[in-house]
Structure formats: structure tokens, C-alpha cells
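Kindly inspect this today.
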Amino acid sequence: MLTTQRKKAILQALKRDGQVLAKQLSETFDVSEDTVRRDLRELAGEGLLQRVHGGALPASSAVVPFAQRQGIESAAKRAIGKAAAAMIRPGHVAIIDGGTTSAELVRHLPADLRATIVTHSPSVAVALVDHPSVEVIVIGGRLYKHSVVTVGAAAVEAMAHIRADLYFMGVTGVHPQAGLSTGDLEEAYIKRALAARAAETVVLASADKLNAASQYAIGEITLAQTMIVEKGTEAALVRPFEKAGIAVVRA
């Protein structure tokens, strides 16, 4: 089997099974594990998969810079944002992550909502400037320009004083085995710290993030209590999360 054929078969197996193991692939193709690992390295270099110990997982496509993601219209993101906004009740303290789906959440907050929004996203904070009855608390720190959010020790320190009802977490990967992940190490620390400050963590998961993984782990999927997905998401994709005790909301 040619290298190109082998790589195509690896990607097909990854799409079908949600993960591949180097040992099994070497047996299937009758080649050495070193050959398979080289194939996986090259495919990872092209952004087509995410290597993990012993094999690989599907790579998340939700890792492009914020400005590019912002320009992509998505009915699914609007629906997820609307469903998330409906979860915030009067008097709530809610933490809202950065990201394009979070931007949709903010747009759908009712004009008469009286609540407190805590965010480390300058974009989210600015979007709420004209909201008549929402108090905004901005977490400061070093600006991570890729996602337009603050990160670092100062941000973590500020979080220690917050007790929130809800945390709406943005991720680039949600995988039954690999858990919740993102494309930046400091951002992963911040997200985990924010989850620890909320009574309920809600993951905003459009289809491109499900059954995918990025380089840096935020935590196990059980770090979240609720997940909002697209209305048409296949039952097989969300079943592992429901079995783990996560409430899945279809938007």
C-alpha cells in the first residue's frame, strides 16, 4: 500500500471510529509502528489529526484566529448562543468566555435582564456597554490576541473572588476520551480556573468541536454539567456525553 493510500485510510478510520491506535494500524497495514507514527506525524503537521499517546484523534477545525471566525456567519452558533442566553436568569452572576459563539450569546440577552456578567473577553465587555441593566465585571491580565481574551496570573488571581451561578465555556475540542481542550496552554488554565468558580459549567459545542481534540487539555468532559449542541447533531455523537451524566441541550 502506498503512503498516500495509507494516510487516506487512516483519516477514514479516524472519521468512522473517532480515534485510531498506532499498534492496530500497523497490524492492519502490515507495516511497522514507526511507519505508522511517521504517517501520523505528517498528517498532524497538515492539521488533519491530533496525535495522542498511542495514536491519534480528530483535529479540531475551530482554531483559526478570532477575526477569521468572527466573519463566518453561522446559524448554528446563533442558535446555541440564544439557548445559552435563555439560561441566565434575573439576579444571576454568569461568567462568559471569549469566542464567536459567546458573542452570539451576548446579542441574545434580553434588554430587561438584570444580572452580572463576568468576562475575560474585552469583546464581550464592550458588547454589553449599552445594555441598560447588566453589570459587567472585566477580568484583567495579559491579552491573548488570537482569541481576544485575558490570560495569566493576574486573571487567575481575580477569579478567586468570584462565585458564579453559570460559566459558559468556549472550547475547540470536545471528545469522550480526550475531554475538553483548546489550542493554547494559558487559555486552558484560565478555562479550568473559571469552571472552578461556577456552580454549573455549560460548554458551547458547535459541530466542528464535537469528537475533536486540540493540543491542550482543559479537563475531563465531566468538568462540564451541561453542553449545548446544534439541533441536528447525531445522537451517536452526544450519547457518550449523556452517559457521563452531562445534560445535552439541543439548540
Summary: The domain at 66-250 is CATH 3.40.50.1360 (Rossmann fold). Residues 6 and 52 are 19 Å apart (CA to CA). The chain has two domains: 3-58, 66-250.
